[in-house]
Write a structure and sequence with these properties.
Blueprint (H helix, E strand, L loop, with lengths): L2 H55 L7 E5 L5 H9 L4 E5 L3 H11 L5 E4 L2 E3 L3 E6 L9 E2 L7 E8 H8 L4 E6 L5 H7 L1 H5 L3 E9 L10 H8 L5 E10 L8 E9 L1 H50 L1
Parallel strand pairs: 1-2, 1-8, 2-3, 4-7, 8-9
Antiparallel strand pairs: 5-6, 5-7, 9-11, 10-11
């Protein structure tokens, strides 16, 4: 084989490898697209139960500003937009590749603000795993290492002060085990009941080491007047591990939301009692006249008999 033939064969092998790599990349992209579509459908189903609970029991709640912490590529942003079309939505995603898709999916939407950062208990720098757009990416301890990215961390209270935000209607936190630190960053606002609804992802058994246990949220939220509203999106452990709960989405409502609904319930009760009393008063004279007329008719019959 001549030198020219060997070079031609090598070019052919390299071209074939390039085609194979392109095919694999295309398959991965398509697989990721399908997976994201399926995940968006599941999120819509799960969030449907949340909206149903809010519609039925939180009729006095007005949502005009949403914080979506751990927004991923925008599936929950889309759900919040459908549910609360007039609300401002502030979306936070620390992983660069995921953030870029978030920006792309929300492009052209009014009132949506996207940030490529993490929220935490205090300002600093963190490191987040960066395995594509995986939903399992999370903040990790230690320094920068392979498969991670450096990311700025901001406390929620500081960001709100910088942006002139004094109230959040709905704070949704889904940060793969970092949720409690996010809440601690909002503590002054929680203390003043300036966050109406708090949604967190909570672990439900001691074997789950990747999510904050539900009971650890209670000492942070309950002293500020927050109460557990409902539990949604219950996920079980894999069968090989055990037939019991792994995690849930827990919703807490603030003292101010509770007080508004109590006042509305009292008002409705008084209104119902007032209408009942008025109805009874309206019926009594008519009933009395009917009874008197019956007595008079009976007396006339006796006199003429």
């Amino acid at each position: 084989m001549s030198e020219a033939e060997r070079h031609a064969e090598l070019r052919g092998v390299l071209a074939e490898r390039a085609r194979a790599r392109a095919e694999v990349k295309a398959l991965l992209v398509e697989s990721e697209r399908v997976a994201l579509e399926q995940e968006a459908k599941l999120i819509a189903v799960h969030r449907g139960s949340i909206w149903k609970g809010i519609n039925a029991h939180l009729r006095e709640l007005t949502v005009d500003r949403v914080f979506d912490v751990g927004a991923h590529v925008g599936q929950t942003v889309a759900e919040f937009r459908r549910r609360f079309p007039e609300a401002e939505i502030w979306a936070f995603e620390p992983v660069k590749a995921t953030y870029e898709q978030l920006v792309q999916s929300t492009a052209g939407e009014e009132g949506i603000h996207c940030f490529n950062l993490a929220l935490g208990a205090q300002r600093g720098t963190g490191h987040v795993t960066a395995h594509g757009t995986s939903t399992k990416n999370r903040l990790v301890g230690g320094g920068l290492r392979r498969g991670t990215q450096r990311v700025p961390v901001v406390a929620g209270r500081d960001l709100c002060d910088e942006q002139g935000i004094d109230h959040i209607s709905y704070l949704k936190v889904d940060t793969e085990g970092h949720d409690l630190q996010v809440l601690r960053g909002f503590e002054p606002m929680l203390r003043d009941s300036r966050v109406d609804v708090v949604e967190v992802e909570a672990g439900m058994n001691p074997d789950n080491e990747l999510h904050v246990p539900l009971q650890e949220f209670l000492p942070v939220l309950q002293p500020h007047g927050y109460r557990l509203f409902r539990i949604f999106r219950q996920a079980s452990e894999k069968p090989i591990k055990g037939p019991y709960l792994r995690r849930v989405n827990a919703l807490f409502i603030s003292r101010s939301v509770i007080e508004r609904h109590r006042a509305a319930a009292v008002s409705r009760k008084k209104g119902d009692e007032g209408r009942t009393l008025a109805s009874r008063k309206g019926e009594t004279p008519e009933g009395g006249r009917s009874s008197l007329a019956a007595v008079r008719a009976a007396l006339r019959r006796r006199l003429h008999s």
